[in-house]
Specification:
single chain; alpha/beta; Rossmann fold; seven-stranded parallel sheet; about 40% helix; about 15% strand; binds nicotinamide-adenine-dinucleotide
Length: about 260
């Protein structure tokens, strides 16, 4: 198998997505940003040029992970352009305007809507890319989960903050974790593997008081920088992790201990 991977990152133009694209390109891979919007694409290309990174290793394709037609179009466009797709990174973060409501205020319709686009979208991408990977003879899926898919929230960290850990997120991320095991086992013998990365919180201009409370649970750092996750992604898309399948790698500085 080639060491240069063609990697499709859904939600590729978001916070973690851009860090993933940049590290993939820095390491010689072809990185495809598959996102519902291309608003950040031009700035990302400028960033690549500033870092002297090859812009020809970057490609944008429009996708809505909750539309089968759109997912199929993404697979078609990327596979025709590069001749293959080695890995999918399920990394989008769809949510509606009522996401982040307190438990008592979360409406059933919003709960279902957020599950439908997020777990449903990750499922749709896994399902459709797997069909492509099966025909191609190999494939690799890395899905972004969260520590809040494996543990109950530390609600005390959110005291006095104007946001909390939404109830949908627990259902979404634990669901994706289990889907990963389901797919890994279902595709036995097909040379397709499925793994998850479960990050702790990542710095994104949160209030310093929130960061301080969060950091008190970390072992050496606390809240992560987005670049702290790129090594794990590079490992999981590489052949060095060829026989890791159906697993979840927690990257949280020990927050979940
Ligand atoms: N940032 C964190 O602290 C953190 C921690 C743990 C896990 N995660 C997970 O990592 C992933 C990336 O998170 P992020 O913080 O970079 O999110 P983000 O909000 O910064 O970016 C998400 C991206 O997804 C795109 N998107 C939204 N709906 C879409 C759709 N229907 N189809 C295609 N693209 C769509 C957006 O345009 C955006 O570019 C998410 O799955 C998130 O749950 C993030």
């Amino acid at each position: 198998m080639s060491n240069t991977k063609v990697v499709v990152v859904t939600g590729g133009l978001g916070l973690l997505g851009k860090a993933f694209l940049q590290s993939l390109i820095s390491n010689g891979h072809i990185a495809v940003a598959a996102d519902i919007t291309d608003a950040a694409s031009a700035d990302f290309i400028t960033e690549l040029k500033k870092e002297n990174l090859p812009t020809e290793n970057y490609f944008y394709v429009s996708i809505d992970i909750s539309s089968k037609q759109s997912v199929l179009n993404c697979i078609d466009v990327v596979s025709k352009k590069f001749g293959r797709i080695d890995a999918l990174v399920n990394n989008a973060h769809p949510r509606n305007a009522n996401y982040l409501k307190k438990l008592e205020e979360a409406e059933h319709t919003d709960f279902c809507d957020n599950l439908s686009t997020h777990v449903g979208g990750f499922f749709l991408c896994m399902q459709q890319f797997s069909l492509f990977f099966k025909k191609q003879g190999h494939g690799n899926v890395v899905s972004m989960c969260s520590i809040y898919g494996i543990m109950a929230p530390r609600f005390e960290v959110y005291e006095n903050a104007d946001f909390s850990m939404p109830v949908e997120y627990a259902a979404i991320k634990s669901g994706i974790l289990h889907l990963t095991k389901y797919f890994a086992k279902y595709y036995k013998g097909q040379n397709i593997r499925f793994n998850c990365i479960s990050p702790g919180g990542v710095k994104n201009n949160q209030h310093p008081d929130f960061i301080k409370r969060y950091n008190s649970y970390g072992m050496n750092k606390g809240m992560l920088d987005k670049e702290d996750l790129t090594g794990t992604l590079l490992f999981l898309v590489s052949d060095a992790s060829q026989y890791i399948n159906g697993q979840n790698i927690v990257v949280d500085d020990g927050f979940s201990l």
